[in-house]
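Lecture 7 notes: from sequence to structure.

We start with a single chain of 279 residues. Read the sequence below before looking at the structure.
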Amino acid sequence: MFKSEAFRSDRGLGKVALAAFGLGVFMTLHVSLLIYTKCVALMDPSFDAIASSRWQCLEQWSWYALALGFFHLMEFMMTAAYRPTNVSYDANSTGRYVANTSFVVIAAFLLNHSREYHLAVLLSCVEFWLEFYFVPMWKLHSFVRPVGMAFVIGGQSFRVAAMSTAANNFSHRIEYFKRKEHRLVTHGVYRFIRHPSYLGWFWWIVGSQILLANPVCALGYTLVAWSFFHDRIPYEEQLLLGFFPNEYPAYKARTFSGIPFTVMNYFTCYGDRERRNTD
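Now the structure, written as tokens:
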């Protein structure tokens, strides 16, 4: 069964179903852990300070895991709602770019986003569990959880609002050729922010590390994410200037990019063509 095209292809419904099932199990387990932690473990008077601290850390971990699962689930659901022909398991499974054609950009759960993404998640887990074991009290500052939750919820909300407002104009990957149905979106959350989905994702990933009380990864995620957008946004905007030469300059002048200090970088915009095909 698993050798069939439905499970081997990233467009296969079997692979999509397995990913959805896996996310469901992952989130269910962490809902159960959260309920147990809140209703049983933290109510036990026999725990000493360290044991109690570790159970509180597990509560933080459960919220993070649920936020992570919800993020990936919403990426698929929003794509299914507005660009159903692009739905697949893997956002990186693409065809070749062909000039003067409508290139179909495939987007989905983003579970297989990149090696860098997997490494970042792994490092955040390593930091959390090391600190959980050795210094659990460090992770229990009173402001950490509400600030982290606020960033995560706000970032997720912005990203969902951006994807739903852009509808079929949204794509997970940069599109190098303008589709005939492609329109410049300037209403809703795009009225004042040119890249609200990037803003949402930026604050979501930073907030996720604040929620985990991971100081090293919080700083690292912030620097790496900003560097990524500092490179990507100017390059993407140069393409948009080509797509909408009469509309985009005025729109750009009256709006904020969403990520601070991402100025136009012409070296990035006109850089290596090989890099464009692997972005």
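Confidence is low (pLDDT under 50) at residues 93-107, 265-279. Keep this in mind for problem set 3.
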